[in-house]
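Quick start: load a record and inspect it. Here is Alcohol dehydrogenase:
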Amino acid sequence: MKAFVVDRYQKQAPLRLADMPTPELRDDEVLVEVHAAGVNLLDAKIRSGEFKLILPYRLPLILGHDVAGVVVKAGARVRQFKPGDAVYARVDDFRIGTFAEFVPVKESSLAHKPRNLTMEEAASIPLVGLTAWQALVEKAGLTQGQRVFIQAGSGGVGTFAIQLAKHLGASVATTTSAANAALVKRLGADVTVDYRTQDFETVLHGYDVVLNSQDGKTLAKSLRVLKRGGRLISISGPPDPDFGKEIGAPGFVRLVMRLLSWGVRRSARRLGVRYSFLFMKASGTQLQQITRLIEDGAIRPVVDKVFPFASTDEALAYVEAGRAKGKVVIKIK
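Running the structure step on this input writes:
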């Protein structure tokens, strides 16, 4: 099969189009013919080696975490899916590889594609949808009447998280440029802060939850917009000791995580708020719940650009440049 691979860890290194063997199928997996693949900043970070401690992949590596496609083969223990089913998923860590013609997906990570979405729209959903769900529903327990600050509202996670937070009944503030203010308001943002002309720390106060996706400076400021007892959930780091335990990291890796997050955890304690790191996990069960929201019209995909398979490198560069409004997708079939 054709696939785009990483030969060595390096920032902005070009991916190589290669002929690779079709992956072997495990008993609890299905083989999906890839019709479309979502492109995420996570792909660029893995290529650059940022996650080598957490995810020690063997090279060469096929990139890609989001898939929408059709089941062509099912493992012996698979019961919920059969050949011909239209499906979508965020594939599991250490089984990534959706920038290819075929990818194996664990049954427990898979869901039937929303009936009202195209393959390209469906491929835009899993990683950002599950990230928003695990941050706002699982970790934060966001409820009606609470206030949440979601950073980078016009980005992939932001466009989904705003809609999910509004569905949950929360009041939403977000940062964006003036050019994208109308977009995030249509998605449900109640308060918009122009990051080019305003400092969100001077505008926002007393929030229950912050979803942080930016750098360390923004993280420090974000702690101060929370009310006492509030919670900051960061998807951009630093990883904390609880995350180290969750993934069963070796002792020296847990020590590194403890040291990296010591400053922000200390600041959070002083302010009477909580800090936690989220590295989202594949989950077919949660994706099924997201499917229902999409089919009911509560959430709609926001797709900026669809690139042809041959332009996978360009798609990844576009995402890495931070220009995308919503998601970028590669059309493979």
